[in-house]
Amino acid sequence: MPRHAARSVGAIAVAVAVTVALSSTTAGAAVGRDDPTNARWLPPVASPTVVRGFEAPEHAYAAGHRGVDLRSGADEVVVAPALGVVAFAGPVAGRSVITIDHGDGFVSSLEPVDAVVAVGASVAVGEPVGVLSPEGHVGPGTVHFGVRHRGEYVNPLLLVGGFERAVLLPCC
């Protein structure tokens, strides 16, 4: 191989290595620790069973089920599903509700839950935020878990993971 070709190959290899190193550092910085899509999400109750799944409405004011109802398989402690700050804790339409702001447009709501944390408190993933209230529309031992991303409701189970997803099988 001619001398100038060897230098060109070496220069290209160095340029590729620098580009890869910079792009992985930039990507890591862009995602960051505060990005909820990169964070760990947990179910808000222990050993949950899905009682009712997410049903997206056709439009903003249409009927739907904007969250999931999870029955606890253990105790009545409700935990923060992800890192965040308690944005609201109090009654809404006769039910106790906790809302947590997780950053980057993600907000979760839990009901009926009697809060053991104050508005403005920082909470870690899995940290107790309340206990299931006996009142509510979901039945005893059950929490309604909703998540909004930039104002739009999303299926919380897509963030939490650990639940079986529907699989479409070929027909005929």
UniProtKB/TrEMBL annotation:
GO terms for molecular function: metalloendopeptidase activity. InterPro entries: Cell_wall_metabolism_enzyme, Dup_hybrid_motif, M23ase_b-sheet_dom. Residues 64-156 form the M23ase beta-sheet core domain. Residues 1-29 form the signal peptide. The keyword Hydrolase does not apply. PANTHER family: L-ALA--D-GLU ENDOPEPTIDASE, PEPTIDASE-RELATED. This is M23 family metallopeptidase.
